User: Which sequence fits this backbone?
């Protein structure tokens, strides 16, 4: 079976620390590792499996900071990979 690439933007590998925060209802902060970035998003790995698709977060990493929406999660062993769509950089 062939898997067709469905990404609309080029991704490039990236590294460094990512910090995200959100209220649910109390303020929570998660720290993880940046995996890759694109013009409109990024992917990180972390240890918090309760992020939900559609959730809004504030983020900061070496290349950008702003607000993003959780698009998907994938649990791999005991780590979680999460893809984010940046909705406001600044």
Assistant:
């Amino acid at each position: 079976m062939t898997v067709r690439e469905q990404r609309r933007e080029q991704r490039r590998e990236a590294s460094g620390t990512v910090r995200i925060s959100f209220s649910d209802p109390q303020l929570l902060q998660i720290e993880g590792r940046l995996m890759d970035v694109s013009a409109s998003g990024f992917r990180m790995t972390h240890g918090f499996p309760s992020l939900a698709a559609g959730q809004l977060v504030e983020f900061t990493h070496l290349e950008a900071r702003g607000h993003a929406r959780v698009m998907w999660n994938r649990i791999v062993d005991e780590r979680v990979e999460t893809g984010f769509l940046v909705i406001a950089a600044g």
Notes: Residues 12-89 form a domain with the Thrombin, subunit H fold (CATH 2.40.10.220). The chain has a mean pLDDT of 89. Strands lie at 12-13, 17-23, 27-37, 41-46, 56-61, 64-76, 79-89. The longest strand covers residues 64-76.
